[in-house]
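Our consortium's second objective concerns turning raw sequence data into structural hypotheses that experimental partners can test. To show how far this objective has progressed, the report includes one record in full. It was chosen at random from the queue rather than selected for favorable results. The single chain below, 331 residues long, was entered without modification.
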Amino acid sequence: MKNKINILVVGGAGYIGSHMCKYLFQKGYTPVVLDNLVYGHREAVKWGPFIEGPMEDELLLSKIFKDYSIQAVMHFAAFAYVGESVTDPGKYYLNNVSASISLLESMRRHNINNFLFSSSCATYGEPLEIPITESHPQNPINPYGRTKLMVEQILMDYKLAYGINYTSLRYFNAAGADPDAEIGEDHNPVTHIIPLVLQTALGQRNEISIFGDDYPTEDGTCIRDYIHVTDLAQAHLLALESMLNNNTGGIYNLGNGEGCSVKQVIETARKVTGKDIRTSVTGRRAGDPAVLIGSSAKAVNNLGWKPQYGDIKSILETAWRWHEKHPTGYK
């Protein structure tokens, strides 16, 4: 029975991991959460056992694998602040790469051979073509992107040498919140545009900064591909079930295939919230491409993925419900 299938969700107290746990539980699986709570929230763990600790703790992982008869591992425990990865790359290589190897080694010792990896479009670097497909060259331009690419390369080697099957899911811009507003996005520091815009709508910020309005786009602001966090969870479950059915995994982009500019996000947020959201224009940020849009055709065709929140309005509506209900986050 499905409810006897235990899935270890590493980083399950975080933004995407917690949504994954709710989705797994709704579909009859038992999510077992391992999180060190460096960035995750204990309050976001509601749908399965919770173990606090790091993924590189060999003794702890051994106990988890034995106690829960884990069938697959989902890895959401990377550090993900691009700017910080530039100023403190050691922190990122230790957590994102070294600790991931420790996790894989523990899996290998316990003959657990299904691994789902939360990767990133940051592995592609500056886009050579739009939309970006999975065959686009990978040339990351910051340490964060390089750590994701390194783990992907490690996974290829582990599959060849040890038979650990993996699926690597390269996200574009994860956004939105649980439609029931039970869980949502609570990061500190806040760097993503949607929570920044909604905090401005709540009066917690005076204005939202637009980093450059002179890009070669229709309104001069950067265009990004936003994907709802519940749609990400759906894609992970489809990939998991494919692997549990003896498929060896794959590599998939996860995005909407359509872009939305910074100004479009702000204008839609004004309509959704009914608030006047003040803006100011500052200089461009280094390394910000004008357009980042991904093709998810492979996930749609191979996994049967059907995103439910395909437009920025529905994404913002779910995020606004969460922020209104939890104006200071989980605390």
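The partners drew two points from this record. The radius of gyration is 19 Å. The chain has a mean pLDDT of 96. Both points have been shared with the crystallography group to help prioritize constructs.
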